[in-house]
Amino acid sequence: MEMINEGKQPACVQACPAEARLFGDILDPQSEISKKIASSRTELLMPNKGTKPNFFVVVSK
Predict the structure, then answer these.
(1) How many helices (H) and strands (E) does the chain have?
(2) CA dist 41 → 2, 4, 15, 58 (Å)
């Protein structure tokens, strides 16, 4: 949480060589993650497990 409070991305997002991870506030319609979810076909990962925070997977076209 310290990195996030400092405005930095989590280490897993920074370290991903494929830039396949996004992190952000899905309630903010201007955030990169909200725009990606709105413009892509996504699925919520394990919704039956109540995953929180939410973890979305972008489905390949």
Answers:
(1) 3, 2
(2) 31, 27, 24, 6
pTM for the predicted model, two decimal places? 0.67
Q: How far apart are CA 6 and CA 45, in angstroms?
A: 27
Ordered DSSP codes for 28-54: -TTSHHHHHHHHS-EEESSGGGT-SS-
pLDDT tens digit sequence for 3-24: 777 888 888 899 999 988 888 8
Report residue 10 as tokens: 């989590």
Structurally, how many domains does the chain consist of?
1
Q: Which domain holds residue 53?
A: 2-58
